[in-house]
Design a protein that fits this description.
The protein is α+β, with helices and mostly antiparallel strands. It has helices at 22-32, 35-38, 69-79, 82-90, 92-95, 107-111, 134-143; strands at residues 9-16, 44-49, 55-63, 96-97, 100-106, 122-128. The chain has a six-stranded antiparallel sheet. It is globular. It starts with 8 loop residues before the first strand and ends with a helix.
């Protein structure tokens, strides 16, 4: 891995619905992260109310430890299936906006220690690539075998 900084920060957001155990939801998120990040990441907890009055907990965090962020890309790249990588590569225009890459991970799969993309009820990651062009971001993703 190059020492050149690629990702400036990562925002993570996940909802724990009334039918879910908030601690299990956080465990699922932790399963997506390299151990070095799990040890330092702190989540902010906000209580929300759903459309039908049901309680929802929103967990958010921003990871800014630049020396550890490449480990996150490495973990994603090593654990995504070939099918998910192909899907991301084919639909990168739907997930990339300016210098931000938006990824949605399967909460259920993550609770089992697997990294998989999903659209419904995901764990949201926003990876911010400072001062990178779309082509440069694609190169970073290829270098970490994310696509």
């Amino acid at each position: 891995m190059s020492q050149k900084q690629h990702v400036s920060y990562v925002d993570i957001r996940v909802f724990a619905h009334a039918t879910e155990d908030p601690e299990k939801v956080l465990t699922a998120v932790h399963n997506l992260l390299p151990i070095d990040l799990v040890e330092i990441v702190q989540f902010e907890k906000n209580s929300l109310t759903g459309h039908h009055g049901n309680p929802i907990t929103l967990f958010t965090t921003q990871i800014t430890e630049k020396t550890l962020l490449p480990l996150l890309l490495d973990k994603i790249g090593k654990n995504l299936s070939a099918l998910d990588k192909e899907d991301l590569n084919s639909n990168i225009n739907l997930r990339l906006e300016k210098t931000n890459l938006y990824l949605r991970f399967d909460k259920q799969a993550a609770s089992l220690g697997k990294i998989k993309f999903v659209q419904d009820d995901p764990i949201h990651f926003k990876l911010h690539f400072k001062n990178k062009t779309c082509q440069e971001i694609l190169e970073v993703l290829k270098n970490f075998e994310v696509i």
